[in-house]
Amino acid sequence: MTVTLDDVACLLDIPITVRLIEEEELDHDKDIELLQEELYFTEAEAWAEVKTQFGVHVSCTKLKRRYELRLNMCNQLVEPAS
User: Fold this and answer.
1) In this predicted structure, what is the pLDDT of residue 23?
2) CA atoms of 69 and 72, how far apart (whole Å)
3) Looking at residue 79, what DSSP letter applies?
4) Could you tell me which residue, 26 or 58, shows the higher pLDDT?
5) Who's near 6: CB < 8 A, 6+ residues apart?
6) pLDDT digits (tens, 9 = 90+) for 24-37
7) Minimal CA–CA distance to 53: which of 69, 34, 68?
8) Cβ atoms of 55 and 32 closer than 8 Å
9) Dihedral through CA 22, CA 70, CA 57, CA 30, nearest 10?
10) Residue 52: which residues within 8 A CB-CB, separation 6 or more?
11) How far is 33 from 28, CA to CA, in rounded Å?
12) How would you class 39 by CB atoms within 10 Å of its CB: exposed for 0-12, middle for 13-18, buried for 19 or more?
């Protein structure tokens, strides 16, 4: 199942009036670059995901793991108040 922007708009009653992202043709090199810069994939992980998902798509499971990893890293950096 894929949740689309239209689904979110309907569920949250948020009007979508303009494009949020300019569509552009991406090649595999740009795909890899985006995964590395935005989701902190290693190059090997990014290539594997692009091959598995056939482009700039990330499985929901892997996306969730990425965010959990980043959240845990941030939580470790924040020291509890004394």
Assistant:
1) 58
2) 5
3) P
4) 58
5) 16
6) 666 778 888 888 88
7) 34
8) no
9) 60
10) 59
11) 9
12) middle
Rounded Cα distance, 69 and 63, in Å: 10
Read off the amino acid at residue 62. K
Q: What is the largest CA-CA distance in the chain?
A: 51
Non-local CB neighbours of 36 within 8 Å, separated by 6+ positions: 42, 43, 46
State the amino acid at position 66 in one-letter form: R
**The total number of residues written for the chain in this structure:** 82
Tokens of 34: 């985006």
26/80 Cα distance (integer angstroms): 43
Structure tokens at 62: 């892997």
Q: How much is the average pLDDT of 41-65?
A: 83
Give the residue-averaged pLDDT of 57-79. Answer: 82
Q: Look at residue 77 in the predicted model and tell me its pLDDT.
A: 80
